[in-house]
Design brief:
Rossmann fold, Serine Threonine Protein Phosphatase 5, Tetratricopeptide repeat, DNA Cyclobutane Dipyrimidine Photolyase, subunit A, domain 3, 3 domains, 5-stranded parallel β-sheet, globular, binds flavin-adenine dinucleotide
């Protein structure tokens, strides 16, 4: 009997661990571990967990059609996994445990502890299903780890020129299995799970349709449209990538098949998928990132983060009085998703103009985003706060007014999330304190003064 451990790889096709189980011809039972204590410690967002729950129900149905039952191991934390999985393996007489790797340190340690505990009776084997090129395989010419994105992406693309990354489809059922599936608890034993089901359908058909729709109809305009939050210019596939409902390799295969020439390799959109790979590569190469250490340790002593509680609260609630920051935060609170440009704007605002530690923002994002992803979120926050690998230079402080005027010139995005601004003339909508006459807050900071303070703070030392 094979045991296959599903985590953030909730798909049946293009799942290397499941494909390997299929190839060895043994009966197979799938399981998930529910770890509410660890989820709370990791600040898992109700939106992401809601999506994970619903997608799990879909995967369970698809697995059962293939003769693979799904067991639910309800434990408290990652620490409990070795004993619970050992017990399951013994009960079922399993000889193999297969899973797809996850790269943050706690997950790596959890998997190691499970493999160590099962070593004498079960063969444990991991696969790289979350990335296209496994972390550690793209190195500099001298064999060291890349710390800068552009040369990493160049070397990454070179590896891909030959494109030898097949997907092994599962076309027939597994051998019959007498084990019965468990019910998936409606709350995962955790807390309220909530997300917008209309925005993020979970059936494999609906997800596949979104992938093809984007790549066929919208990817060509991605470079031109991707920075404008009022425009539907990006794929919005991040929630599915985060829970593994779709894999980056699947996206690459579709993208490649839709291009009539080699352009796919240089597409702007592929660049973003490579950023995702870069952050995973860093997470493995530099485990301190998982411990929330800045990539550039010297910044730790140099920058004195400020304790500005009321400004923090205003930022969290989208009540800073800076329209683009507030509209972005309202979008996050309402949908669990935020446009990439605005993630950079609000992160720069919090860390530089307000002076609050990037780790507070990172944790807040983890607790709200439907696409919360430890590696990409950590990378994005460290980049924005200028403490990370290949980060924005310290003097790059996003001007929230100029960003708003440039990327939302008519204020359409602003009005969508701050309807009070509809009554305000277009040119005035971007300004701090816009719409106070209709109830919007006064600005919580003076932009010019805080910009100077931030530059001085970063320069010192
Ligand atoms: C402060 C901050 C926090 C972030 N937190 C997260 C997070 O928790 N989860 C997350 O998936 N992304 C995060 N990002 C990256 C990026 O904002 C989102 O991936 C993107 O907005 C998702 O929208 P999309 O699917 O339409 O992206 P598209 O533009 O269509 O890009 C396709 C895919 O590429 C990946 N991608 C795109 N941009 C980046 C990037 N800058 N870094 C890494 N991967 C990228 C995503 O998987 C995305 O789905 C963060 C960025 C910043 C600046």
């Amino acid at each position: 009997m094979n045991l296959i451990w599903f985590r953030n790889d909730l798909r049946v096709q293009a799942n290397p661990a499941l494909a390997a189980a299929h190839e060895n011809g043994l009966a197979t039972t799938a399981f998930v571990t529910l770890t509410p204590k660890t989820w709370s410690e990791h600040c898992e967002s109700p939106a992401r967990m809601g999506l994970w729950h619903d997608r799990l129900l879909e995967v369970k149905r698809e697995l059962e059609d293939l003769n693979v039952p799904l067991k639910i191991l309800m434990v408290e934390s990652f620490d409990d996994c070795p004993a619970a999985i050992g017990e399951l393996a013994e009960q079922l007489g399993a000889t193999n445990l297969l899973f797809n790797y996850e790269y943050p340190l706690n997950e790596v340690n959890r998997d190691q502890a499970v493999c160590d505990a099962l070593m004498s009776s079960v063969h444990c084997v991991g696969f790289h299903g979350e990335v296209i090129i496994p972390p550690g395989e793209v190195k500099t010419q001298t064999g060291t780890d890349f710390k800068v994105y552009t040369p990493f992406s160049r070397a990454w693309r070179q590896r891909l020129v030959k494109f030898d990354y097949p997907i092994r489809p599962i076309k027939s059922p597994f051998p019959a299995n007498s084990i019965t599936s468990d019910e998936v608890p409606s709350d995962l034993g955790w807390q309220s799970l909530s997300y917008n089901r209309e925005l993020w359908p979970v059936t494999s058909d609906a997800i596949r349709e979104q992938v093809y729709q984007f790549i066929r109809e919208r990817e060509a305009d991605y470079k031109e449209k991707r920075d404008f939050p009022a425009v539907n210019g990006t794929s919005k596939l991040s929630p599915y990538l985060t829970i593994g409902a779709v894999s980056p390799l699947q996206l690459l295969h579709v993208q490649r098949s839709e291009y009539s020439h080699d352009g796919w390799l240089n597409s702007s959109w592929l660049n973003e998928l490579i950023w995702r790979e870069f952050y995973r590569h860093l997470m493995v190469a530099f485990p301190g990132l998982s411990r929330l250490e800045p990539f550039r340790p010297e910044t730790e002593a140099r920058i004195q983060w400020l304790d500005r509680e009321s400004a923090w609260q205003a930022w969290c609630q989208g009540e800073t009085g800076f329209p683009i920051v507030d509209a972005a935060m309202k979008q996050l609170l309402a949908t669990g998703w935020m446009h990439n440009r605005l993630r950079m704007v609000v992160a720069s605002f919090l860390t530089k103009l307000v002076g609050i530690d990037w780790r507070r923002g990172e944790e807040f994002f983890m607790s709200k985003l439907i696409d919360a992803d430890f590696a990409s979120n950590n990378g994005g926050w460290q980049w924005s706060a200028s403490v990370g690998a290949d980060a924005a230079p310290y003097f790059r402080i996003f001007n929230p007014i100029a960003q708003s005027e440039k990327f939302d010139a008519h204020g359409d995005f602003l009005v969508k999330w701050l309807p009070e601004l509809e009554m305000v003339p277009v040119k005035e909508r971007h300004k701090p304190g816009a719409g106070q006459f209709y109830g919007r807050p006064a600005p919580i900071i003076d932009y010019t003064k805080e910009r100077k303070r931030a530059l001085d703070a970063y320069k010192e030392g």
